Structures are given as structure tokens and as C-alpha cells.
Amino acid sequence: MTYAQHISELVGGTPLVQLTSVARGLAATVLAKVEYFNPGGSVKDRIALKMIEAAEASGELRPGGTIVEPTSGNTGVGLALVAQRKGYRCVFVCPDKVSQDKRDVLAAYGAEVVVTPTAVHPEDPRSYYSVSDRLAAEIPGGWKPNQYFNVNGPASHYESTGPEIWRDTDGTVSHLVVGVGTGGTITGTGRYLKDVSAQRSGQDGGRVRVVGADPAGSVYSGGDGRPYLVEGVGEDFWPGAYDPSVPDEIIAVTDAESFDMTRRLAREEGLLVGGSCGMAVVAALRLAERLEQEDPEAAARATIVVILPDGGRGYMSKIFSDRWMQQHGFLAEDDGAADAEGHD
Ligand code: PMP
């Protein structure tokens, strides 16, 4: 018999799938790494497991403790499913732009959810960073994984995501495209792919190019943190989990482009994924087009891997709602997809 003893043992080992429709006509091979195959439905299961196990080993998290974390939902799910097995309580702090669907999911896993305003500065006492700091200090046995600064976030990607991509592409990956939130995924995965390709080729710095995708307005692409609606990516400060020396370049993507591509991925590729996935795919396709303009032969040999961090079920009332898209000016009033409104 083959079975896991707990769902948390099934984290990682996600598949690559080629994007054929949205990448049609491009010379490069574009492969998506589909992180919704993780048991909690997102890439964040990887860091949750590693951060908890490291905190147990260091004594920061003790039996019966409470995990307090600011999370847009996905990290919370990962932490909650590992915490359940180990008997920890979870209190999660979410900004109010996070969809109700996502908050309900956290509650369903047994976590307590505290909601804070999105449009305040990180140092403001009402910000989700400040509120989580206060709760972690006040609650006895409280421990804050602090995904924005925890080195075990990028380390989990160095140990799992990076090696999986190298193995599944037989070492042919030439470009990695990742949306940047805490920066943990791009830092750990990108660093691994650079290190391993440097070792194999003897080429300093390796031959894998690492490209960050960022919502226009966020700090990574030179903005000031101006609000954008895509969830889970972009920042208004520089997290310690992000090593800016890893990406070779950052591509800024607007909400409109991200959401349009997110809907296309569902309709054309059968990939019902979140908005940060659409954003990363826009960046990957823009990269593929540019490679082709610069050097068509090299573009034909390129294997671009783009990470799709989560599934789309948590965004049905937003990105996949014609009305919401129209209200925010992302879809013309007469451009609604009638079949999305209940016709088969
Ligand atoms: N997309 C989504 C939906 C996320 O929740 C996150 C995590 N904040 C990311 C992308 C970015 O990942 P990272 O924090 O590793 O940069």
C-alpha cells in the first residue's frame, strides 16, 4: 500500500505543464509549474512546513503554542494544515483587500482571522504587520513565523522548488519567471537554479536568467507601493526574504493585464489559477517575445519556467466575476461573457 500518513507529507512535487494556447506562435517553450497541486492549494505550503519545523528545532515554537502571522491567505492555509497535525492554534491577520472567500477558507481550517485596513502604511499601528506583532507578543506561547523575514522561506524553495524544476527540465531550464511577494520563491528557487547551472557549466553566476514579475506600482519595479488589486504579490517595503541580487530583471505588469491573462488561462489552458499567476504569465510571454526579437535562434532553444502560485477558486467573486471586472474598469460593460453568468 502507498499512502501518506498526513496531508502535510504531500507538500511539493508539483508538475510542469506547457502553455500552448496563450504562448502560441512563440519560439520558446513556456512551462508552468502548477503550485495548486500542493495539499493546501498553493506554493506557500512549502514555506509553512519548513518554517514550523525550523522553529520547533530552535525552540521558538513550543508544544501548545500559537502561530500568529500576517497572511494573504495562502501562507495561512499551509501553516494551518501543518499546525493541525502538531496541535498549534493559529491566528491570522489579513488586509481587507483579501477576498472573503479566502478568509472563510482560513476559518474552515480552524484558524482565527483578524482583518486590518489595506490602505495604511506598514508602520501604522492598524497595519497588518503591526497588528500581528502586537498579537504575537500578547498571546502566551505566541510565535510569528514572519514570512517576510524568515530565511526558512527562501530555504524551502532552495531545497524543493528549485531542484524539482532542474530535475523535470533535465537541466534545460534557461529562464525562471516568478511573481514577487515576500520574495521567498524567487530568491530560493532562482538562487538554486543559478547555483546548480553554475556548477554544471563552470560559468560564473550560472546560465539561468531569473525574472521577477511585479504589479505596476510596487517597490520591486520602482514604484512607491501605490495600491494595486492583484493579491499576494508586490510590496510597499523591502522584505528580508527577498535578495535583490537574484533576479536579473523585473517586469512590471498592470492589474488589467494580469486579470485578463488569468481569465485566459482558465478558458484556454484549463488552468483555473489566481491573479498573480496571470501576472507572472504576462511577464513570461513578454520575455519570450523579447528573446525572439533579440536572437531568434536562442529563443527557439529557450525553456522558460513560470511559477503559478495558487488556484483560482478563491477569486470567483473578483477576477472571474464579470460584474467585478466591469466595476473596476477591467472589462467593458458590453464585454461580459454571458456563459460565465450561468449558461452552459
Ligand atoms: N502569489 C500569491 C497568490 C501569493 O500568495 C504569494 C505569496 N505572498 C506570491 C504569489 C508570492 O510569493 P513569495 O511570497 O514567495 O514572493
Helix fraction bin:
25-40%
User: Uncertain spans, ≥5 residues at pLDDT below 50?
Assistant: 338-344
**What sequence of helices (H) and strands (E) makes up the elements?**
EEHEHEHEHEHEHEEHHHEH
Percentage beta strand: 5-15%
Number of continuous helical runs: 10
Number of strands: 10
- Structural class computed from helices and strand pairing: alpha/beta
- Strands ordered across the widest β-sheet: 1-2-10-7-8-9
Major sheet size, sense and barrel closure: 6 strands, mixed
Distance between the termini: 41 Å
Tell me, rounded to a whole number, the average pLDDT.
Answer: 93
Q: Rg from C-alpha positions? A: 20 Å
Tags for this model:
single chain, about 350 residues, alpha/beta, six-stranded mixed beta sheet, four-stranded parallel beta sheet, 10 helices, 10 strands, about 40% helix, about 15% strand, disordered C terminus, binds 4'-deoxy-4'-aminopyridoxal-5'-phosphate
